[in-house]
Amino acid sequence: MRRALAGTGPTLLLVTAGCTDSAVDAPPRLVEPAASAAAATPTASRQDADEVARTLASLRRVDDLPLYEMTYAGGYDPTVGTDARPASGPFGCSLFAAGGDPARPLVARNFDWAAHPAMVLRTDPPDGYASVSMGDLSYLGVGSDPTGDRRLLNAPLLPFDGMNERGLAVGVAADDHATAKPVPGRPTVGSVRILRLVLDRAATVDEAVAVFERHNLDFDGGPPLHYLLAAAAGRSAVVEFVAGTMRVQRGEVRLVPAGGGERRYRLPVS
Q1: 3-class SS of residue 254
Q2: Is the pTM of this model over 0.70?
Q3: For residues 42 and 44, what is the distance between their CA atoms, to the nearest angstrom?
């Protein structure tokens, strides 16, 4: 824990919307538990028995989507794998960062996908930054009733969006043409797992980009992705993979004088 996640600071607006029939031919079926939920062995948890009990007891249903929230007590290993994946299908997402008002930067997103059960997760690992993230429970293999399901202890591994205590926000969107060629000597992580490493380890956009640069990404089992990074100071960047190579597009400010002639200024990234 670096410090507690404050309730004030930069605004992060997470907007989720399920796909309509026109966007998805057949909504994917939820992956139901293959074994007893209570007996399922988590792979990420580095908690003691009391922390496990407090984590599972904190699960609360927020609305009828259904949307849940849970507070993760204790530590986890963000580098271990989970092999539970839902059925694949078409994806559609949009994200933006607005930094025009330095006192109130805004990040917003639409996650245009099937109406799976989702969960807001609060984490505060002993060796990383506290954060709030949003995840899809079906990717954990959790069924329609997650109560007492120990697979929830893997929830830190699969954030789709989030913001940490330093005001660094991250989000993903599908990019059908993205390809990531591995760089020898770098560890390989999943295309969503990289967000957990960023939330836990990065305080600025530069530090987040450095986390990406230290890892190879594995797009197998899901759509290729690109990533939005936005910091409390209003800085932002998009991380994409073009022809196998990572490219970073920094945030820009565009000014159009009254007499015409657009001027473009690249923001320093922090």
Answers
A1: strand
A2: yes
A3: 6
Contact between 85 and 31 (Cβ < 8 Å): yes
**pLDDT digit string, tens, across residues 169-192:** 999 988 888 889 999 999 999 999
User: For residue 255, how many C-alpha atoms fall within 13 Å in the half-sphere facing its CB?
Assistant: 6
Compute mean pLDDT per 10 residues along the chain, 270 residues long, and list them. Answer: 44 30 34 48 89 97 93 93 56 76 81 82 97 93 89 94 96 87 92 95 97 93 86 90 92 50 43
- Report the C-alpha gap between 240 and 180 in whole angstroms: 9
Rounded to 10 degrees, the C-alpha dihedral 108/112/113/115 comes to 70
DSSP 43-87: SSEE--HHHHHHHHHT-EEEETTTEEEEE--SEE-TT------PP
Residue type, 163: M
Q: What letter would DSSP give residue 169? A: E
